[in-house]
Design goal:
alpha+beta, OB fold (Dihydrolipoamide Acetyltransferase, E2P), nine-stranded mixed β-sheet, elongated
Amino acid sequence: MSETRFIVSTTLDGYVNALKPSGKFNNCCFSARLSDADLKKFDEAYERAIAWGRTKMDGKRHTEELPKWDESGFFKYSYGGENGAPMFPWVDTDGVALDPETPIWKGTAVKLIIDLKPYVYASKVGCSFKVKGAQVVRLVGSGGSDSGDLDLEDVASIFGTTDGFKSGSPSFQPNDKALEENPIADDDIPF
């Protein structure tokens, strides 16, 4: 694997709209936090990208773009839809593509393939942040959980197989915390 491609394990956080573009900007989005070890690797890759960009600017005046993650490793990522980064494959732990109707909520454990590459654009120097694939290890949905260049086969081969969520054989486990935060009222039931 190249030194600009990383596989990180994390948990989705905040608002999650992972598989079907929708909303005001007709896109998909999620946020997550890098582990301390991954944050260190990402910061090193960012520093290498900025150093590379400085050499390309050859003493010209330029601005250095900030990294796409904050000091704690938190990042937000938008993709798909009309103007965003291209959609990327989402697979389960067997490498099977997820159905676009699969509900993915905050707390879902995932592995992400992320490419960090240096760029120089006009007078800007920076480090691009692109998610190329995702594997759901533990799916969290309503009230419970179930433990671009890359195509579906590439993402599945990079991740391999592991224990956890499988779209072909779900094993639902209630999530009491989610039910406490968002109780289902009797008038919410359509029958």
